[in-house]
């Protein structure tokens, strides 16, 4: 039997500025984040949760529009009509200080905002008026909260009632911590000392369970904003049973998923039709394998072309021909968007190389020919190989000569192609 059920989300970043290539795409993404938040509210209502917890960065303070403010209040009123209280701990992007936008919003009565870094504990009741949980929360008072605000949280009351911590914080050792500012820093030991049942965190945009006892969770941001925030995004619905057992289930609610696909093995592709078919098959296989073709979200794809390809000159910009290559890439992007049903596709060519056949240059009277001949001798003659070895080589085993030779021979694998590609550089046509 469920004793306390709630929805945990964080880092919505409504009205965050996007760096998309077109105005239409920027407007689409702005609306998509609103849709993600509305879906989260829909889920809370359909799941009949006892409370909705927001662990900071609901919006971006500097760019919040009147329209989005109105939208937020409307969603809170929907929750109020469903008798669902909201507990909201502001973060560094939506600080609680009186000079920031959050303080100017007229929140409905069902919304409890933790307006200070000094923690406050609130009761949560079910629809019959029974106490089902305690929630302790604290908010950032400025955009640069440097203090450990968790250290002042009270220890849980030993009453058999679940106690939840709600805060926007940077936890030492958390996956993705290096990508975020060190605001409200703390440790897992700080949280474990409080004897809470669950910690609802925000700030790190990567979904993660940092601890199982107590359960410490970053839900990640509600929707990815660029290719640095890829994958399915959403919220957690958490159920705490009468026995104290905690179950946290992830629900992907974001209508957009940023994804990177890699397409290689292009050495046999010689025509546009072959390239399109090869790309389609490679991407479709990856999309199905990773669950990006379920129809519940739109995909914004980055496609990385890698390795040697005979169509290199038709795709890589060179001098006055740059506009032609740009048109060719656009053709590929439009084709993939159409056949795969993706919202947007960006084809990236940084890993694409010219087709190089080392055998065509062996035995020739130039630097590359001589270098390839030496490489071939090193493969077959251990003495030549040992002469080429530098005195200090990382990873090379010492002592046994046979082990050293085997190690060096392993380093030669694929080196003929690499040698030819580097020496030929931009001269091959």
UniProtKB/TrEMBL annotation:
Any Pfam family: Metallophos
One MF term in the entry's GO annotations: hydrolase activity
Domain Calcineurin-like phosphoesterase as annotated: residue spans: 4-206
SUPFAM superfamilies, sorted: Metallo-dependent phosphatases (SSF56300)
Keywords: Hydrolase
Protein name stated in the entry: Calcineurin-like phosphoesterase
């Amino acid at each position: 039997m469920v004793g306390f059920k709630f929805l945990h989300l964080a880092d919505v970043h409504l009205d965050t500025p996007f760096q998309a290539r077109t105005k239409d795409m920027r407007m689409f993404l702005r609306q998509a984040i609103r849709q993600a938040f509305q879906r989260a509210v829909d889920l809370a209502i359909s799941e009949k949760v006892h409370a909705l917890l927001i662990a900071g960065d609901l919006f971006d303070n500097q760019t919040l529009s009147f329209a989005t403010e109105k939208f937020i209040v409307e969603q809170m009123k929907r929750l109020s009509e469903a008798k669902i209280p909201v507990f909201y701990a502001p973060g560094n992007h939506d600080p609680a200080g009186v000079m920031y936008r959050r303080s100017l919003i007229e929140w409905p009565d069902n919304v409890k905002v933790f307006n200070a870094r000094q923690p406050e504990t609130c009761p949560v009741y079910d629809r019959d008026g029974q106490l089902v949980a305690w929630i302790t929360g604290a908010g950032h008072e400025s955009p640069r909260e440097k203090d450990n605000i968790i250290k002042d949280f009270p220890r849980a009351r030993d009453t058999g009632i679940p106690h939840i911590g709600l805060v926007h914080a940077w936890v030492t050792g958390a996956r993705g911590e290096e990508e975020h500012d060190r605001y409200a820093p703390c440790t897992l030991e700080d949280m474990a000392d409080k004897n809470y049942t669950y910690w609802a965190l925000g700030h790190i945009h990567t979904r993660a369970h940092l601890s199982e006892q107590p359960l410490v969770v970053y839900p990640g941001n509600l929707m990815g904003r660029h290719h640095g925030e890829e994958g399915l995004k959403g919220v957690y619905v958490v159920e705490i049973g009468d026995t104290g057992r905690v179950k946290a289930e992830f629900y992907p609610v974001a209508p957009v998923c940023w994804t990177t696909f890699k397409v290689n093995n292009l050495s046999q592709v010689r025509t546009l039709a072959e390239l399109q078919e090869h790309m389609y098959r490679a991407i479709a296989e990856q999309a199905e394998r990773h669950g990006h073709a379920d129809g519940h979200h739109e995909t914004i794809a980055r496609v990385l072309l890698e390795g040697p390809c005979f169509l290199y000159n038709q795709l890589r910009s060179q001098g006055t021909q740059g506009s032609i290559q740009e048109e060719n890439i656009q053709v590929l992007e439009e084709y993939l968007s159409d056949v795969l049903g993706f919202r947007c596709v960006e084809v990236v060519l940084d890993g694409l190389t010219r087709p190089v056949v080392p055998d065509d240059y062996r035995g020739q009277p130039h630097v590359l020919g001589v270098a390839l001949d030496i490489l071939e001798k090193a493969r077959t003659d251990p003495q030549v190989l040992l002469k080429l070895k530098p005195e200090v080589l990382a990873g090379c085993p010492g002592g046994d000569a046979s082990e050293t030779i085997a190690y060096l021979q392993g380093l030669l694998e694929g080196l003929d192609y690499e040698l030819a590609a580097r020496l030929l550089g931009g001269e091959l046509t």
